[in-house]
Amino acid sequence: MGNLLAQDAKGRNKRAHSACMAFEDDDNDEYYLLAGEDVVENEADREYYRKKIMELYEEKMKKFAREDALAKQIKCEERKKLCKRPTKKIKMQQPKPITQIVSNQVTQQLKQFITNNEMNGVERKKRKSTPTVENKKVEIVRNKITQELEEFITNELKGKEAKVVIQKTLYKSDLEENQNRLSMPMKQVIKSDEFLRKNEKQDLENGKEFEVKLWGPRLEMHKKPMVLKMWHMKSTSNYVLKTNWNHFVMANKKDLEINKKIQVWSFRRDEKLCFAIACLERDVDPQNGAA
């Protein structure tokens, strides 16, 4: 079918293009519209041109639909590329439900039962960590040396409550310079409750320490004060005289030797706790007699 031409009012040939319908120009467009109906001779031709117009319209609509679908696909792919990086999901914490605590006679009895058992457990642990074991039937030596010391405490120092705390053999560890302490194991202490006040014992059990004065085997007070402390061991606890013990050993090295037996005495002077050490095997002055 050849190109259909129509004439305008001035008689010039005119090609009716699809642009009449606001479509873009298409070089492949094979359909042309008539500019006027005066050149159409009959009704059959008019119907023919109407069909061609509708075909052209449908083709254009399909083309636009394909272009829209392609544009949407491109945008969707670009959006997917931008969203490739994973985003951390924030987990919202839901509020915990509030539970009303029931308090009645049963819960009060349970609370009292737990409290009593906990207190009993603490007391058992405390007794275990600081045992007060009396000495195992150690025969306390009484001779002129101990008598001389007791009389010196009572008459010369005006001391009160004089008593033997422990009788022990001196070991190497008691005299070594790097130890700097005299150990008095509680299992060997005669009666710890008798030479300490209740508050003093509690303070020592709680880790406190306090200064005490110490007299040597020759009945001379050591110028530097000692410190009394309690050391907690795995199976027992020990009282120790420390801080200036090395100086005391050096000042009394003639009497304090390894494997020699000593007694540690305690007494009160102006209500303050003091100690004295008697060496049971030392020589006594001739005028006082021999041990």
Task: Describe the 3D structure.
It comes from Lactuca virosa. GO terms for molecular function: DNA binding. This is TF-B3 domain-containing protein. Keywords: DNA-binding, Nucleus, Transcription, Transcription regulation. The protein is of the alpha+beta class. It is 35% helix and 19% strand. The protein contains 7 helices and 9 strands. The protein has helices at residues 43-82, 105-129, 144-156, 172-175, 192-195, 198-205, 245-251, and strands at 6-7, 13-14, 160-169, 181-185, 210-215, 226-232, 237-242, 261-269, 272-279. It has a 7-stranded mixed β-sheet. A two-stranded antiparallel sheet has the order 1-2. A hairpin with a 4-residue loop joins β6 and β7. The protein is rod-shaped. 15% of the residues are buried.
Structural features:
291 residues; DNA-bd_pseudobarrel_sf; seven-stranded mixed β-sheet; two-stranded antiparallel ribbon; disordered C terminus; DNA-binding; 7 helices; rod-shaped; alpha+beta; single chain; TF-B3 domain-containing protein; transcription; transcription regulation
